[in-house]
Amino acid sequence: MTKRRTLTRRAAAGALGLGTSALLLDGFLGLPHANAEADECVPPDEAPLLVICEFSGGWDTLLSLDPRNHQEFDDPAQGIETAYDSITDPQTVALLAETGGTGLYQPPGSNVAYGPAMSKKLIDAHKDDLCVVRGVDMGTLTHEVGRRYFLTGKFPRGLAASGSSLETAWAALSERLDEYQIPNLVSGGAETYNQGFSPLASGLSVPGYAEMSQALRPLNAALELDGEVVKAAAKFHQADFEFHQALGATEHLKAHRAAWSTARTLTAGGVWKNFDFKANPAAGSALDRLYDAFGVIKSNPGATLSGTAKGQAALAAQALTSGVSQVVLMRIINVTDAHFDDDWQTNHPRRQREGFEAVGDLITLLKSTEDTNGKSLWDRTTLVCFSDFARTPILNAQGGRDHHLASSCLVAGKGIKGNQVVGATKDSTYDARRINLTTGAPDDAMGERLRPSDIHATLLEAAGLCHTHLSNQDPKLITAMLKQG
Amino acid sequence: MTRCVRWSCVLALTGCSQASVVSNEPTPTSTTVPPPPSTAEMKPGEGPTELEGGDRPPLGRLVRRLPLDTLQAAMTRVAGTDINGKPLEWTVNGVNGFSDAAFGRALGRPDYRAATEESGVSTALYMKFVGDAARDLCGKMARNDLKRTDPATRALFPKADADGGATEEQQIANVRYLILRFLGLRVAAEHPMVAPLREVFHSGRDTAVQAGAELSPSAEGWRGVCVTLFESPLFHND
Amino acid sequence: MHTIHRRASQTLLGVALVLTASGTAWATPPATSWQPIERAVRQLSLDLRGNVPEMSDYELVEGAAELPDALIDAYLASDDFRLQMRRYHEALLWTNPSVSLASVSTALGSVTIDGVQILRLTGRRSLYRGGDGTADCQAKPQAVLGYEADGTPKTESFGVVGGNPVRREGYVEIHPYWEANPATVVKVCAFDAQTTASYSIASGPDAGTFSCNTLQGVSRSASCGCGPELRGCTVTAVGNAVLAAFREQLLRSVDDHTVGGAPYSQLVTTKKAYVNGPLSHFLSHVAHTLPLSSIQSGVQPSDGAVPSVPYAAGDTWISYEREAPHAGILTLPGYLLRYQTLRGRANRYRIVFRGQYFEPPSSKDTGCLDVGDDLTLRCVCRGCHTTLEPLAAHFGKFAEAGSVSMADFPLSFATRAACNAAVAPSLTAFCDRFYAVVPSLEDPDIRTWRLKPLRYADSAHPEVQPNFEAGPDGLAQSDIKSGLFHEVAVTHLFEFLMKRPPNLDVTSPDYEGETLATIAKDFREQDDLREAVRALVKLPAYRRLP
């Protein structure tokens, strides 16, 4: 059974100053907001926010989320070769030295040891929030397949993704699509999928913040059509010609109409101004605070933000704090597919760290942004960082690392118990271990393998959202990840 | 990217998952229980006659949104040429708007390095740029047509003059011509598509700013029709 | 599944099209919904030409019941079809490599010295000027300082840095090869601009005279520079032009085999290749001087005689013949550099030319090893790697992280020293780059260095050696001979034109396998892609509405 939004809510949205054309929204076009779920799933009162950070290329978790003591695990014959001393990235070298050569960064109060390429800033500031999930069985060593598997929780068919990406489902299941101008923002080339949810939940993809403001700005106001013409055009698009029925059979018609409507709303509403990252913003303004959080050179913001992980994270931060978006999926950085030593020793660790540092700045800003209920925006935000898969525990013949099935992910936020590790990999082969879902500890005899669908279901559960769209995956809740009470 | 959602139809109807398909069927108002199906032997492809199943049509060709390269070429071809014979293009700051130097990458043109696929359905960003391109191209079409004295050489209003003197029959003929040019559909004068497009024309003509305008009111009307057709789902999904 | 889908479509559509036009009408709605003829033409034009039809095409088909053969012929013969087929193949192959062709020893960077912009190589500064390797030349013309009797630029002393004396020359003005206008010159540090052809090693095992235009020359001899017109060095624009040339080179081969008259199956077997100016220049003067840690694309005997084309001739493409083990596009840099590992190449081949994807088993894997390097024996891994490893061996003659053909390389060396001495003068990194040690199971003192792809060629993996020998050509020929190549090609074309996969469920009344098999059989006989496309667009399903 579908749940339908009321016109009253849409009219209210229009009254909030979204412009005349906002009334041409799906209210005019009569589009329902389809809910994929059964009646018993009631979304929470406050919209849960979501940030997904993709570290594309396949990250070496030995350097970050699932490290080993370099002084005990550096012999390829024993199955794991940390080779931390081969790294030439200066900051990684420095952190290795700081840890006395073990490569394990575990500040006081932390229950988790992180690898030498992690961002100290992230850990020091937010260790109590971070939950590291190890031993996630990615089931593939093909980049596109691993990426799409984690994004949707369903194993791709060939290379084609199956199901909807998590952020699309999240936005749709929250049933607040018309409270946000861009409910689902996708950036940095990340892939987004919508299978069966309302088209309004589909991701709006932009490469980065520069394109965001350009893309949302009317390119030439002098060419705009009169409102009456637009109304008449909407009637034409909405009419049920027999020619439209062929498109309707394949859902293309609905997607196109929704896209047309959303496009008109976006350009009429001045949304682009939120993403005009100009130099020297007014002191105390939202942009100024954003720049402070990310350490941006205010006289030249592009130097910090253009083409960087911080740029992607700043875009996400602005989208969430300005209330434009509810969910953001970003390809925060390409860590490089480090099969060869010239990448693995230098670029790969540096890029992982840059990505994680940007994540840390994002969390800091969300924590310092006040929500309408007086709490912080972080209070209702969920964060998850993932990659296509991990990398082999032994260096290959070229001095780099190949692809490896057992990966890790980093989760934090609403309903998630932080400062802990859930799951594990073997010390001999770095393969995924079965775990007790209640304790998060390894249980090779009776435990379960962790899969992306399990993580999806657990995050949705923590946020108070349904996950029945994953039912054909039979996901298991990793209750060890959840905050009690 | 929104994937071709025929799979969602499959899943929803088989009950494998509860991913939704928004049904266009009306809410049933009757509680009558239908009779049980006949047990007579049926041939593959046939439904029980009591339920008026009839023959099922065999598989056809599905639909996909135009790739960006095709969209660029199609809009340029439909737009025609300027009076000097040069193809009309959507330009932004002097650069083709669909090129990678402008919005090609934002629109998702694959480079087969970071991006290997294009979306198969229309997205909001895609439609936003389509709108920008349409308004730019249609304005150029109208301006150039106004300079063409031979109606047969016009791209936007060959069947009706834009001086305000076109008859109703000429307006209808022009609408039918534009539907064929933009959408590849040959329709009769009384076809349901014609009237709403005439309404678009009239709205544009009647609300056109008179003083100092580069386009005559009728040309502005045809510009509106042009934009509407460029934004039609039938232009983009084939 | 398709049965259910069509039930849904039947419910949603409800009625067939009823058209009325100036003389064209459906008298009664047909049981099956068909595209109106003009809309069918639009669909055909979009699919075959990537563009909508001209208005004249709509006039041509007014009142027609079917798509005219003449129209299909015209579309297939158009240049737009060639471009559309390029897009189609790129969407399958993803061949647009993004690699760095620059190294500090060959890529000229710009530096401003006393307000003068000068090009120089950062990787040779220590060799040329001593010190700690950071010294550039002076911002004064070399003519002021003069030259030694042997032609070496004279230098001035600038003290000692890092325990080593620093000597600095001046700059010269050179017309670089990448500038089309011969009057255009750039300022280059004089050492970097040296044109010496050879250098000598006076004594030792490597004593002799060698070409400057080698990896050893550029990294060891201070008398070797970039060569005449800086031909042995690059700037960023050159790297970009070469990458673009890799992409275009592959697409030209696609043109030959889609519209150029060559049999389609030769796309993966032909020895013919093309070069333009930038590619010819790169292969002739730069590729073999890149460090062993970089992309290796140096020309080998099996690459044939690469034509000499001036760098500026970017739009001039000259064909030439490569030798075995080259195999069509599978051994062009556009493919080899996009998929830089043997497994990556094999995986892509399997997807594109066999229509198969790797998926790990969903059930628990037992009776296997939990640890070990041999992925064909490891639990879970073996599900894919028992297939992948032998397949990857087919690409073993082409170096990973490069496109260099190792067909002429010795298969093994008895010792590492012998391995390093395989090139003259010897290169210690050469062995590590292309060979791996394979210790004997019987005698630990016997440590043979084998070409890396052969390190697992043993009795436990009997396919590796023969597949290595067969090369990519053997792989392709085998799939062509069995018919699989043409069957998969037809399936891909079907998906491209019908926007859906074919129904291959033999129990379904809509089974399309037989139709595809017939088209594939004809395709195999004619080996003409256009005819396969023609057969597909003439299927009733092509004009049927969803």
Provide structural commentary:
The complex is a heterotrimer of chains A (485), B (238) and C (546). Chain A contains 15 helices and twelve strands. Chain A has 485 residues and is α/β, with parallel strands linked by helices. Chain A has one domain (43-218, 276-481): Alkaline Phosphatase, subunit A, CATH 3.40.720. In chain A, α4 packs parallel to α14 (341-367), α11 (286-294) runs antiparallel to α13 and α13 runs parallel beside α14 (341-367). The longest helix of chain A is centred in the C-terminal third of the chain and has 27 residues, at 341-367. Mean pLDDT of chain A is 87; it is low at 1-39. Chain B starts with 5 loop residues before the first helix and ends with a helix. In chain B, a hairpin with a 2-residue loop joins β1 and β2 (95-96). Chain B is globular. Chain B has 238 residues and is mainly alpha-helical. Chain B has helices spanning 6-14, 68-79, 124-146, 168-183, 194-207, 217-230, 233-236; strands at residues 91-92, 95-96. The relative contact order of chain B is 0.11. A three-stranded antiparallel β-sheet of chain C has the order 11-13-12. Chain C has a two-stranded antiparallel sheet with strand order 1-2. In chain C, strands 3-4 form a two-stranded antiparallel sheet. Chain C starts with a helix and ends with a helix. Classes of the chains: A alpha/beta (485), B mainly alpha (238), C alpha+beta (546). Chains in contact: A-B, A-C, B-C. At the A-B interface, β6, α7, α8, α9 and α10 of A face α1, α3, α5, α6 and α7 of B.
Structural class of chain C comes to alpha+beta
Distance between the termini of chain C: 14 Å
Number of strands of chain C: 13
Instruction: Kindly state the number of beta strands of chain A.
Output: 12
Q: In the CATH hierarchy, what is the architecture of chain A at level 2?
A: 3-Layer(aba) Sandwich
Portion of residues in beta strands of chain C equals 5-15%
Uncertain runs of chain C are: 1-31
Order of helices and strands of chain A: HHEEEHHEHHEEHHHHHHHEHEEEEEH
What proportion of the residues of chain A is helical, as a percent range?
Answer: 25-40%
CATH class division of chain A: Alpha Beta
How many distinct domains of chain C? 4
The residue ranges of chain A in which pLDDT falls below 50 over 5 or more consecutive positions are 1-39
Structural class of chain A: alpha/beta
Largest sheet of chain C at a glance?
3 strands, antiparallel
